[in-house]
């Protein structure tokens, strides 16, 4: 079923690009305020065929989900994976990871099954490994060091 969307008519001067607001229109919009404008705005989900991105991987710890498909990409910090997953409530979401846990495991899974597509059930959801990381030296410790270095608590997530 097609989604209903709201449309707004914006008068454009002949010399301006169609659909662009004039400075005066933007000033009136700003004066109306966020709440007023937002109450008339179409929800982005009406126009997007994308799925929400998991922002906090902890929501998947010990929570079953299914990996449907995954793709590898090159980012600013090296390779990362984007996986489309299905949660128990049938909702779909994107799980991104560029670490030594999930990304490496999806790479190993791809090599093992010869494709980047499931479905693959993760009965235990995600698990975690917590450790201390020294950003000055790159050192890792399982317990909090007391040497005064720049140690920060870190977490690696794993597929189960």
Walk me through this protein's architecture.
It is a single chain. With 160 residues, this protein is of the alpha+beta class. Helix content is 17%, strand content 33%. The strands form 2 sheets. It has a 4-stranded antiparallel β-sheet, with helices on one face. A 3-stranded antiparallel β-sheet has the order 6-5-7, with no helix packed on it. A hairpin with a 2-residue loop joins strand 1 and strand 2 (78-87). The protein starts with 22 loop residues before the first helix and ends with a strand.
SSE topology sketch:
Elements: H1 23-32, H2 34-38, E1 65-75, E2 78-87, E3 92-97, H3 102-113, E4 117-122, E5 126-134, E6 140-141, E7 151-159
Features:
single chain, 160 residues, alpha+beta, three-stranded antiparallel sheet, 3 helices, extended
Task: Summarize this structure briefly.
This protein has 160 residues and is of the alpha+beta class. 17% of the residues lie in helices and 33% in strands.
In DSSP terms, counting alpha (H) and pi (I) runs of 4 or more, how many helices? 3
Largest sheet: 4 strands, antiparallel
Which structural class do the helices and strands define?
A: alpha+beta
Poorly predicted segments? 1-14
Indicate the radius of gyration in whole angstroms: 23 Å
Distance between the termini: 36 Å
Q: Which of globular, elongated, flat, extended, rod-shaped describes the shape? A: extended
Instruction: Give the percentage of residues in beta strands.
Output: 25-35%
In total, the number of strands is 7
Residues in helices, as a percent range: 10-25%
In the sheet with the most strands, the strands line up as 3-2-1-4
Q: What is the residue-mean pLDDT, rounded to a whole number?
A: 84
């Amino acid at each position: 079923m097609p989604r209903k969307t709201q449309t707004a008519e914006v008068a454009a001067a002949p010399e301006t690009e169609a659909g662009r607001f004039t400075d005066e229109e933007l000033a009136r919009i700003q004066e109306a305020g966020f709440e007023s404008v937002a109450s008339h705005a179409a929800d982005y989900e009406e126009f997007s065929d994308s799925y929400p991105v998991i922002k906090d991987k902890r929501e998947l710890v010990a929570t079953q989900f299914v990996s449907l498909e995954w793709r590898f990409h090159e980012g600013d910090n090296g390779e990362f994976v984007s996986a489309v997953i299905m949660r128990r409530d049938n909702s779909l979401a994107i799980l991104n990871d560029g670490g030594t846990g999930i990304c490496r495991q999806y790479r190993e899974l791809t090599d093992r099954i010869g494709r980047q597509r499931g479905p693959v059930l993760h009965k235990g959801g995600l698990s975690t490994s917590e450790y201390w990381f020294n950003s000055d030296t790159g050192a890792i410790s399982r317990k909090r060091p007391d040497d005064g270095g720049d140690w920060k608590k870190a977490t690696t997530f794993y597929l189960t």
